[in-house]
Design brief:
heterodimer, A: alpha/beta, Rossmann fold, 2 domains, four-stranded antiparallel beta sheet, 10 helices, B: alpha/beta, five-stranded mixed beta sheet, 12 helices, 5 strands, 64% helix, elongated
Amino acid sequence: MIALEARKLVKQYPGVLAVNEVSFEVRAGICFGLLGPNGAGKTTTVEIMEGVTPATSGEVYYFGEPAGNKFREEAGIQFQNTALQDYLTVRETLEMFHSLYNRQADLEHIIRECSLEELVDRDNRKLSGGQRQRLFLAVALVNKPRLVFLDEPTTGLDPQARRNFWDLVNRIRSDGTTIILTTHYMDEAEILCDEIAIMDFGQIRTQGSPADLLRERYQNVIIELPLDDVSGDLQSIDHRILESQGVIQISTDDVNASLQKLVSHVSGLNRLKIRQPNLEDLFLDLTGHSLRA
Amino acid sequence: MLKRIYAIFRARNLEFVRDRSSMSWNIILPVVLMFGLSFIFGGADRAEYTVGVLQSGEELNKDQHPFLDTRYIRFVDINDEEAGFRRIARHQLDLLVQFAEPRRYWVNPDSRKGYFAELALLQSESTTTFGIEKAQISGDAVRYVDWVLPGILGMNMMFSCLFGVGYVVVRYRKNGFLKRLRATPLRAIEFVIAQVASRLLLIMLITSFVYVGTKYFLDTRMDGSYLALFLVAVVGAIALLSMGLLVAARVTSEELAGGLLNLFTWPMMLLSGVWFSLEDADPWVSQVANIFPLTHVLKSARAVMLDGATLIDVAPALISLLLLSILFLGLGAAMFRWRPN
């Protein structure tokens, strides 16, 4: 069953085509990741789907119907940047949003699920970054949503808080809730997403499960070496240079042979890395620039 | 440290200069106020006495009587005899004169200024052969505190309504809270009504508290019914709140919102009769003042408190205010913008 479908979405701002005929489908019950660097158009695309930004053209369908009142009632949204009313406690904030919906979750369950028990009487303004993100997620869950949008939910969180947040997202997904996640953290997408779409310059460049996309594209492994350690001419070895990261990458299906060739051109191998290709490599191959550019 | 201060100083200046609407407004407002005040209050020497000349819609003609040439007396046309008598009784006019036949004048025997104005009239009269009949109208002076109380309460209500709602909505829009609400089933009209209701409750509590306090400590005058006064306050507050929401319906900059709210509050404060009566001002001033909800609120409140007006007497003003509220709320909801951009 298709939970959400974007059909030829276009968003034209004066002088900028932010979203260019974007179409994709999100199956019910999965975690779908929309990836791309800043300015790729993913937030605009998601906001069109959320109904908070009007599209210049195109349509959004929710369980087969044009997204409308039913969608607003059944969707939960966690914005990347938002503010809550000052001077309200966590509980009061949740109660306020809870009251805006006919479809309501059990607030106590949400509070427990988002680990907010200790914070319910605390002023919104006195929450840490991770606590705020948990509150934003709790706000997105107050209507027991069938579909949840998470827009860069872990940006600015420390590693521990990010991992805790991932656990929380996994628990929500295990209840059958469809999740649409936008992020520029590749590890996050690989851990959480069943399916991803990579966006750049307002268009979808590829879509599929992370494993399938990587398997289809790569049979090789990647050797990485700092540029500083290269002393000779590497023309005989197929490679690419990532200036911004100061590394040379060699994609190969025969690590031994590549290393033998490489050894005569480098000053040392102590900083050499051998790894499997990941989503960041995929993005680099597709777009020619880094995901976090 | 100075480097950091300069960096912030420069950035703020750039922000201000590039926000053209706010910058323009900061320049235009003081200029408009200066010219407006100079136009309204400028001119010849201020008069010491105010004398009403009762006539039926005719232009005041100085040839009618040498008294009309007296310096430091301001002569005002009075076309409504009852209104003239009421103002004599309240000491708001020092003298009321009718030069047409039967030639008469009315004075309040308890009015000190009336006494001197009468002497000046009789001095002028002695140079003529017409003869004029004297009549007296008694009544206690309306203390300034009685007169100004509705003005102060109304002004406070106006600021609370316009800034308390208008400014807050703009802040909500700017910091993304409205965008968050947009993602819920909440509709614009629901949000707008909730804002009006919330502020209305607060304003009525505060206004009632202040009114009870002044009544208790200053024994302010109340000739009408408290219910009528309460309804005037409620309907007036709704109209002012709706106006605040209309101003804030699309604005995204707090500075522009402040400027626009000043555009409404300052003329109302000056022309709606908060601090002084504009009954004797040029007719165009009264006409302009009638555009503002606060004018109707203050006129109705004073009518109830000082003249004992009933609900039926103030009903036309209340209906006007309600119609204005519906218009402002409808427009505000239709134009409402959830997002900053």
